[in-house]
Amino acid sequence: MPALNRRRLGRTELMVTELGLGAMDTPTSPEGAATLAAAEDAGINFVDTARDYAGSEFLIGEHVRAQQLASQQLQSQQPGSRGGTQFLLASKTFSHNVNGSQRDVDRSIATLGVERIPLYQLHDISTPEAWAEARDEEAGALAGLKIAQFRGLIDHIGVSCHNTALLEELITSGEFDTVMLEYSAFFPETAPLIELAVEHDVGVIVMRPVGGSGRTSAMRTAIAGGYEGPLTPANLLRYVLAHPGVSVAIPGARYPSRILENVATATEAPPMTEAERAELEAEAARLY
Questions:
Q1: Tens digits of residue pLDDT in 204-216
Q2: Structural domain containing residue 53
Q3: Total domain count, the chain
Q4: Which CATH number fits the domain that encloses residue 23?
Q5: How many helical (H) and strand (E) elements, i.e. helices and strands, does the chain have?
Q6: Model confidence pTM above 0.85
Q7: Does the residue 265 lie in any domain?
């Protein structure tokens, strides 16, 4: 299978695989550990989690520690060899205050089994009130992440947001190295915001690239029932990856088979044409 393409994550200068993994639901599956292993084996190097995603950081930490142990054993047998996980980890704090965000970073470090985290994000800053709280210079969560950055615990700071009206302010604030937003054939209206992020050298992480778990389940049920239209998880992923401003798309996965399907789409499917994109948007609007 061809290697996944890598894209620059804005001014972080991190080179991330254009297909990542959103690990919120991965621990809910009995094959969660195998799913993480499949992602690593397939070459995925960007994994997104959050402090309050139940069991997610713990599962990833188990994987990281297992990879570290395997690396140590390999180096003892073959001095000079390299190993360990290739994952670039990103986590989030749900807290809006300075102490809570620092506490979450410390807990994430301990749970994930790493010395530092490449990207830590403010989660769901989707109202003016949440943004006002989080950006308070003395008491806000953003100040806490800057302290964690000064302590060498995190490298870069990002934000996730579900409010298109607020996203412009977050992107242009100069405070964030990355932004996580929803973008898909179901939700194409964020395309101009992606372009704005590119102008400001802010890396773009796309959540729900295949529509979110509810829509994805409905699509798979329809396909199993004989639906033969263009609205498929593979085409939705192609749609997102066709946007050059997207740094990484992070579909969720609970089973190794989903990882393999997504990797096959990212590496083998042809680029989506403008006509195909328009047809997919129309079908998404018609059915959902």
A1: 999 999 988 788 8
A2: 6-287
A3: 1
A4: 3.20.20.100
A5: 11, 10
A6: yes
A7: yes
